[in-house]
Amino acid sequence: MNIWPAIDLRNGKCVRLQQGDYSRETVFGDDPVAIAHRWISEGAEQLHLVDLDGAREGHWANRTAVQAVVSAVNVPCQLGGGIRDEETITELFEIGVARVVIGTKALKDPDWFRDICRKYPARIVLGIDARDGCVATDGWLETSTMPAIELAQQFTDEPVAAIVYTDIAKDGMLAGPNLSAMGKMKQASVFPVVASGGVTTSDDVRQLARLQLDGCIIGRTLYEGQLQLADALTAARQAS
Q: Which of 101, 104, 115, 197 has the lowest CB atom count within 10 Å?
């Protein structure tokens, strides 16, 4: 199972939110490149970047920080947050982003999402952020009536790279992942599933790996030192 250390960007800084609440922010550093190098030096083979300002505003916002990180590292980076037009996707691929994560636009304009997946096969990740099982959008500020699994199944025939599935209630809370929800998504989807939200300990990583997920995204627990990246990588290898 792949481990994706998270670098969440807001105003050019590396931060973490609790349950996606912009008023509950912790700043962990003002140099995202240094943080990226830290995770790579500790064994990271890929990085998960989130443009929090972009998710809220509906367009790519942290341009300077994203470009700096991608140009400074030699591992694949995927980016999510506010990516809602083809021009932005093209620009991100041109600067070296490996995969883009699209959530809000996939829900609101599924035909557009299908077209983008076909144009960039295996480079578009479906981002599904769920609150009480239903898809949240617009930087988690809105919640739809669409069940998360139903959204995933809409795109079964498309060349989607993976699903990043986030349980909002667990995100940033250091209380463990929603194993039941992740397992159900894995069973219901034909795509690789990357779990996000609540991963705190090596045991959390092992339990997700036993669900045969493709990967998990780890954030706050790494920044606060409760989990060492090397231990997470070892747990993922041993359980997979």
A: 115
